[in-house]
Design a protein that fits this description.
Order of helices and strands: HHHHEHHEE
Helix content: 55-70%
Strand order of the largest sheet: 1-3-2
Structural class: mainly alpha
Distance between the termini: 62 Å
Shape: flat
CATH architecture of the largest domain: Orthogonal Bundle
Number of strands: 3
Number of domains: 3
Length: 185
């Protein structure tokens, strides 16, 4: 009994140290965003975005290759920035509820050992994906929002979307301006 209590105490101390280290890291990250005036820059980026969207609309029929090239590079750079920031946002969103009761979702592993189990997981994944898209306005959602809603990595979402588009043509993936859109057909 003494060893069991000692190991529980050690575990509690480890969790206490771990959570303090996580708090220190998150606090430092928050401070660096504040010191870098990250929040103050939001308005500037919103104005920039709206200006560029207006310029894209205005110039869309002007046939200017330099402008078109710039918009392609802007879209690619914006996508790269989203790819960098999105995992941070997704992880931090999950942490916003750790001060209350947690609800854990069962995440099956790929190594289930039987093919029937794998197929059930895939069908469940597809069903969940379809449900999220169908509950979106106009039965359409951005790829990024869909991925965030599902909590999946890119590989899993791409694999599931490819299976759906090839097998039953119920899902369409299109590019609208610089956004990848997923729609029900």
């Amino acid at each position: 009994m003494l060893n069991e209590n000692a190991s529980k105490e050690e575990m509690l101390k480890n969790v206490e140290r771990s959570t303090q280290n996580a708090l220190n890291a998150l606090t430092q990250f928050e401070k660096s965003l504040i010191q870098g005036r990250f929040k103050e820059g939001i308005n500037s980026y919103q104005v920039l975005c709206n200006t560029l969207l207006g310029q894209k609309i205005w110039s869309s029929d002007k046939d200017n290759q330099a402008i078109n090239d710039n918009f392609e590079k802007i879209a690619a750079t914006a996508k790269n920035i989203v790819d960098i920031l999105q995992p941070y946002v997704e992880s931090l969103e999950k942490l916003t509820n750790v001060d209350g009761d947690l609800i854990f979702e069962h995440i099956p592993t790929e190594n289930t050992g039987n093919q029937q189990g794998k197929n059930e997981v895939k069908e469940n994944d597809e069903s969940r994906l379809m449900q999220i898209i169908s509950s979106s306005p106009k039965k359409q959602i951005t790829y990024t929002k869909l991925r965030s809603s599902l909590g999946w990595d890119r590989k899993k979402l791409d694999t599931t979307l490819n299976a759906l588009t090839k097998r039953n043509n119920k899902v369409s993936i299109t590019q609208k301006n610089s956004r990848k859109m997923v729609s029900l057909l």
